[in-house]
Amino acid sequence: MLQYIIWEVNPEIFHIGSFSVRWYGLLFALGFLIGMQIMTYIFKQEGKPAADTDTLLIYMVVSTILGARIGHFLFYEPEVLLHNPLVVVTPPFAGLASHGATIGILTSLWLYSRRKQSQLTGQTFLWVTDRIVIVVALAGACIRFGNLMNSEIVGRPTDVPWAFIFMKNDEYAKIPRHPAQLYESLSCLVLFFILLWFWNRYRERTPRGSMLGIFLIWVFGLRFFYEYLKENQVAFENNLPLNMGQWLSIPAVLMGIYFIVRSNKTPIPVADPEKSPTVET
């Protein structure tokens, strides 16, 4: 039986001079690249313009990074944001908040769908979000695995046989801890396969908003409980009954419940092949 796992992986793959390629950056990029290949396949299967995925990729990259950066400083270091707002877009780009990324992505998809609705492509907000959550779940798995490669967002001390000792993290080294990053990565990977199966089986018969609801409840419901196994990110959280990640997860789960309830009350649009695509209201 394992006593613990010594984790001393170098976060750098290689470097040339001052430029380095890190596992986190590679996994972050792979999440987007593989995800867009999947979205291209989905668009083709459902008769949407495959070229639109290029535009969608731009919306997703910009909104994810900006949302995650703004969210980190807004939720965890507001005094830094107030003192220097440009810190959001200046290196080093340390600090990304998944709740901020979620807000950014939903906002950008609303803007994207508004543009596409005017072109009568049938890409409504809920149609797009129900598909994009498939690849966001995959990207989440990649990003959390990147956190593991960075030895960051570590768990609390534990004596479970699969505990990790993060040798590359000077603050938390030499004590077996929960591999919280791995828990979240695997959870996102499982969700990716569930959502992909759900779409492949039901597609247009899927009530609008149901997959978005499943995503929000799964990701942030589990996030709420995983936070009990993780070290707080900033000192002020030590004095809170729930940490910031838990407080932010509650409205996300409630929003997921709303979309599930709404989807069960909304008729499923029936496509008529002899008519031009219509815009949902």
How would the global form be characterised?
globular
Protein structure class? mainly alpha
Poorly predicted regions? 271-281
Radius of gyration (CA) equals 20 Å
Please provide the count of β strands: 4
Enzyme class: transferase
Organism: Spirosoma profusum
Subcellular location: Cell membrane
Pfam family, one: LGT
What does this structure look like?
There is one protein chain. This protein has 281 residues and is mostly helical. It has a domain at 5-10 and 21-205. It contains eight helices and four strands; from the N terminus they run βββαααααβααα. The strands form two sheets. The protein has a two-stranded parallel sheet. The radius of gyration is 20 Å and the shape is globular. Pathway: Protein modification; lipoprotein biosynthesis (diacylglyceryl transfer). Belongs to the Lgt family. The chain crosses the membrane at residues 23-43, 55-76, 96-113, 125-146, 180-199, 211-229, 244-261. Keywords: Cell membrane, Membrane, Transferase, Transmembrane, Transmembrane helix.
Write a compact overview of the structure shown.
One of its GO terms (cellular component) is plasma membrane. This protein is mostly helical and 281 residues long.
Overview features:
about 280 residues; two-stranded parallel ribbon; single chain; about 55% helix; disordered C terminus; 8 helices; 4 strands; two-stranded antiparallel ribbon; mainly alpha
